[in-house]
Amino acid sequence: MDTAPNNTLERWLTGPRFGTLPSPASLPAPKLSFEFFPPKNEKLEADLWTCIRRLEPLGPRFVSVTYGAGGSTRARTHDTVARLARETSLTPAAHLTCVGATREEVDEVARAYWEAGVRHIVALRGDPPAGASQYTPHPGGYAQAEDLVRGLRRIADFDISVGAYPEVHPAALSADADLDYFKRKMDAGANRAITQYFFDTDVYLRFLDRCHAAGITLPIVPGIMPVTNFASVKRFSAMCGASVPAWLEKLFEGLDEDEGTRRMVAATVAAEQVRILQANGVDEFHFYTLNRPDLTYAIAHILGARPVAAG
Ligand SMILES: Cc1cc2nc3c(=O)[nH]c(=O)nc-3n(C[C@H](O)[C@H](O)[C@H](O)COP(=O)(O)OP(=O)(O)OC[C@H]3O[C@@H](n4cnc5c(N)ncnc54)[C@H](O)[C@@H]3O)c2cc1C
User: Fold this and answer.
1) How far is 173 from 196, CA to CA, in rounded Å?
2) Looking at ligand 1, which atom is closest to the CA of residue 146?
3) Mean pLDDT over all residues of the chain?
4) pLDDT at residue 311 greater than cutoff 80
5) How far from chain centre, in Å, is Cα 91?
6) CB of 171 closer than 6 A to ligand 1?
7) How many Å lie between the centroid of ligand 1 and the Cα of residue 246?
């Protein structure tokens, strides 16, 4: 076998592939959290509960339920979170936004959660309701997530997560202004941040470096989006400011009507992403499950997560 420096067996074997990354067995067990959205009808509700029961044995630190744009799912979010608290061993977290409600109304929702035993809130400004292009604070409401965090801190000793934007929030004046604001929001009383999803892993690691340099020491948990439907991820990414790299587009090329292959490709992409993060010392992951368990389960397994015994 040729062993010359530029054409060695060693060169082929030391490329960036799983085998060369530290093994999950030698790394701390991953801390997981899973995000769901509240179902619109009975069929979707059944799907959600199948998803929850499949992921429950992985022992996530918490599971969160989103709040529809403009607060449109207020009752459904509450019902799902309350049922999680009542019927499962999981720690539920309720997303709550500032949109379209007075401070008193938002406070009332938060108090109802506390009374239902829910101790974790994902505090967000929220996006404008469908049809509105720009965010306008409610005249009597919390203007931004920072204000909501302060409000929640006055109500009870909640565990509070907030959003973070490795690629900069689309409404930010600049990357530096966004980082300043993010630090203020964390300092207002958040316990951790969860990031918008991203596909280029270095985007997150660079953001983490900038946050550390700015003195943010609380956990900034990467949000992982397994791509079940590339076309819709592309549409949504254009709105939320997440970039879709050309390499990703190429990988999903021609698969719009081929769900089976798409899912295998999606698993490979997400597995590579989480393994590289893990090899860089990241041990917490938040999964945007889209109420589908299989990809999330497989990726969590690759990270080293195994079902924990009940009870
Ligand atoms: C993990 C996660 C979960 C989410 N879940 C939901 C959900 O359930 N429901 C929903 O509707 N949306 C949800 N979103 C989307 C979120 O509501 C939008 O991204 C929204 O546009 C911003 O919310 P925020 O809490 O990050 O806002 P903020 O942090 O309040 O602000 C967003 C940006 O505006 C700028 N800004 C804010 N205040 C100031 C200020 N005082 N001065 C200067 N600049 C300022 C900053 O650049 C900041 O990054 C979620 C996002 C993430 C990352």
Assistant:
1) 18
2) 30
3) 92
4) no
5) 16
6) yes
7) 26
> pLDDT per residue over 92-142, tens digit each?
999 999 999 999 999 999 999 999 999 999 999 998 877 777 888 999 999
* Statement: the pTM of the whole predicted model exceeds 0.90: yes
Residue 53 makes CB contacts below 8 A (sequence gap 6+) with none
- Cα distance between residue 34 and residue 285, in whole Å: 9
- The question of whether 115 is a catalytic residue gets the answer no
Residue 9 in contact with residue 1, Cβ under 8 Å? yes
* pLDDT(4) > 70: no
For 257, other C-beta atoms within 10 Å of its C-beta total 7
Q: How far is the CA of 185 from the centre of ligand 1 (A)?
A: 10
- Helix 74-87 / helix 103-115 crossing angle, nearest 10 deg: 20
* Ligand 1 centroid – CA 210 distance (Å): 19
Question: For ligand 1, atom 35, which residue shows the shortest CA distance?
Answer: 172
CB atoms within 10 A of CB 183: 14
Taking a C-beta distance cutoff of 8 angstroms, is the pair 164, 193 a contact? Answer: yes
Give per-residue pLDDT as tens, 257-270.
Answer: 999 999 999 999 99
- DSSP codes, the chain: ----GGG-HHHHHTSSSGGGSPPGGGSPPPEEEEEE---SSHHHHHHHHHHHHHHGGG--SEEEE---GGGTTHHHHHHHHHHHHHHSSS-EEEEEE-TTS-HHHHHHHHHHHHHTT--EEEEE--PPPTT--S----TTS--SHHHHHHHHHHH---EEEEEE-TT--TT-S-HHHHHHHHHHHHHTT-SEEEEPP-S-HHHHHHHHHHHHHTT--S-EEPEE---S-HHHHHHHHHHHT----HHHHHHHTT-TT-HHHHHHHHHHHHHHHHHHHHHTT--EEEEE-TT-HHHHHHHHHHTT--PPPP-
